[in-house]
Write a structure and sequence with these properties.
Blueprint (H helix, E strand, L loop, with lengths): L1 H10 L2 E4 L5 E4 L2 H16 L6 H10 L26
Antiparallel strand pairs: 1-2
The chain binds zinc ion.
The site of zinc ion has 7 residues, from helix 2.
Length: 86
Amino acid sequence: MGFVSIAKRARSRSSWLCGCGQRLEADEDGRLCDQVVSHLKRDHQTAYINYQVAREMVTSRAYKMEYAVVYKNGTSPDEEFGPEPY
Ligand SMILES: [Zn+2]
């Protein structure tokens, strides 16, 4: 009888792929939300993030546009404008 719950547990591992390519994994959705929150706060300085928002992102497997700003770090689409014309 015990093995049923064990099998169920093994399948409940969930993961979430961040916009920056970072993959977050956890045994349950609740912990995954925690990881999403701390990752966004620490690595993306996302102030508005909280458990509620993270949960939405995890369940819908999506992330809000606002924090796609992360690409500013790496590749900039267009170079900085040159010096002002004198
Ligand atoms: Zn990220």
